[in-house]
Amino acid sequence: MEAEGSFPDVVSHRLQSDRRENFSVQILRGESEVLGLEAAWRTLFKRNYIDSPFCRFEWFSAWWDAFGPKSSCGCRVSNLIAILVRSQGRIVAIAAMHFNCPAKLSLEPRCLRPVGVLGQRHSDLTEEPVLLIEQGFQDSVLPVLLHALQELSHDYDIVQLHFVAEHETKSGQSRTASLLRHGAWHDSSPMLSLSLPDTWDAYVALQTPKSREHIKRKPATLRKQCGEFRVELVSPAQTHWAVNELIRLHRRRAENSEGRTIHIVSQDHRLFYQDYFYQMASKGLGGIWILRTEAEVLSAQSMLMGEREWLLLHSGHADEYAKFSPTVILQTEVVRQAIAKGVPKIRLHRFAQEWKLRLGAEVDGYFDQWMMMRRSPTTLARAAFYAGSRSQRDIPEPAPPKKPVA
Question: Considering the entire predicted model, what is its pTM?
């Protein structure tokens, strides 16, 4: 058994680096200190190893404002920290994290998680880690961050760390048992992106014959059913209305489709979505796309826009129109608009669902999740409680088996 506060070899072995950098580490505590990093955060974001909207300061601050823990009186609980890593005096990494504060006699584990992670299945909304590392420092900075987390061992029983890697590093261990047996579990799931050519005709030429037929036939079929429709990116002034439509359709799609998940699960989620996407739409950095007739909205898709990449987030559609594929029609039009604006890539995130592959998406990196635990009797007891509580496990479960075809 490892000494208390140490991490198991399965994690440290994968983060060995041949580089011998001289790094210094600083840990900031409390809201005012961490939110005061805005200028440094924005500077580092421009050099970040991944061009992710979830690494923007806007996402971090809006998420924390919506989901940061509050006390019973409604006051914010100051359990926010940031680990800063410097090389030759320059900040090359920022890891913003938060921890819960369970009651003294509670068996609830003390968890240290990245900002953006709630620890409840499917309800984070953050599809990638809010972890900033300057390009070229990924391999050498990660062991430094892990060492800093060891130094914080009195603050937590369990720590989560998320990272986007170029290559799959899955350990192969059973994640259901490895937390208690080895003090860690590790999972790596593929992320997918759609590389776009210079012209729409070139994109269509790259599609399979079936996909080309869908591009041609689906819009005509939908028009026969409901008349004329249009696809549009709603204005900032319409964002709150469009978010409500998206959530309505997102829920209807999930409730009527086996294996679908509802991600926007609470009033806090709704308010966050409304406020955040209003900010992004106002800055030209994102918004809500809708497919609508004069009478109703048939499909909606949230999207975040970077200089080099667009990112499709959550979607939904009216179930009675599902066989006409309104979301596929909407997403195809988004692709057409991206090509017209010279965007080279659309990101579709984790898991190789059929609809992503149908669009022509390919694996573009891996989303790595690590969970590590201190090795002590108290922590083991708390971890057993954690592992047995489905609401606390941030481990995606497989979709239920499909119904047999009659």
Answer: 0.83
